Amino acid sequence: MELLAAKVVERLNRAESAAELRFCHDELARELRRYAAREQMGQLANDIVSVHEAILRRAFFLAERETMKRSVGVRPSAWCWYVMGSIGRCEPTIWTDQDHGILFNCPENEEAACYEFIRHMATIGVDMLHEAGYPYCSGYVMATNKRWAQSVRGWEQQLVSYLDSGWPNDIRFLLIAMDMRPLYGEAELAETARKALFAAVAERPLLLARMGEHVQFPPVPLGWLGNVQTERWGPYSGAVHMKQSGYVQLTNALKWLACFSHVPAAGTAERRRALEANGVLTAPLSDAVCEALSVYYSIRLKYSTEAGDGREYVLWRALERMEQKRLKQAMRTAKRLQRFVARRVANIHA
């Protein structure tokens, strides 16, 4: 797989169209199906991340080049296209939607013209990625949304409003933004913004507590007797939603703990290692979380190699017996980590 990833990235660096980007995206999916068929999932995460990053960087480069060619607005003196969501956390599957934004810096008197450049570039990049097999984000977390394409001044003002109000949608925004990781352009802009966000939330105990309460939802679909609560009705009856069955709960809990412990990392694995090193997570709990994340990732990779809606749903009866056993244990770990966060939230309120 590593050799394939290197070849795909090399080809991507020469791509000149969305069709070429889509070809490489599809090739990655075809290769993963071969690995899944042989049950050789192994250490695929880094290779998958590398290919996704190469596709996105090339799309962003082509969007920038086209915008400059058309002489739209004024190119900012410094700007960064950053990613969030699963790609931001370095744990995407093959078919993932778009989660990204842009930060830029420029003289205040040029800001309007720079916004024109950024918005035009964002539109081209978003549409190109859609053609390459990355669906538009259903929550509109993309650089075509002004909330996610801001000057540094605008971003700081927006951030203060979310920090001070703390409404549920504001908390959702803050949790999403904590995953921001620079991918193309001036990396320092996004790195500085993420670190400032972590520091600002950590300095507000009541907001931190409310975010910790938010992490308790959705509940892990595992009953008291260890029964997995599958979908009861509709087209996915008998299926488990792999993201909502414990994966989201694990990543959000680690994100909150990272903020609680002043660890401004973007990736889930990096957060877990730092939390263990800092003594926030015991070694046994950290190992259990690592294993649970591995279980969710491997099953999601194996059973979601096809593009389209519903790829996160897996029929419980389609899982092998050992997969069912490991997934149940991963769900228990997710519930355990949620309780771990709940105790720390209670300490804040005490």
From TrEMBL:
<dbReference type="Pfam" id="PF03445">
    <property type="entry name" value="DUF294"/>
</dbReference>
<dbReference type="InterPro" id="IPR005105">
    <property type="entry name" value="GlnD_Uridyltrans_N"/>
</dbReference>
<dbReference type="Pfam" id="PF10335">
    <property type="entry name" value="DUF294_C"/>
</dbReference>
<dbReference type="GO" id="GO:0008773">
    <property type="term" value="F:[protein-PII] uridylyltransferase activity"/>
</dbReference>
<feature type="domain" description="DUF294">
    <location>
        <begin position="206"/>
        <end position="344"/>
    </location>
</feature>
<feature type="domain" description="Protein-PII uridylyltransferase N-terminal">
    <location>
        <begin position="36"/>
        <end position="168"/>
    </location>
</feature>
<dbReference type="InterPro" id="IPR018821">
    <property type="entry name" value="DUF294_put_nucleoTrafse_sb-bd"/>
</dbReference>
<protein>
    <recommendedName>
        <fullName>Nucleotidyltransferase</fullName>
    </recommendedName>
</protein>
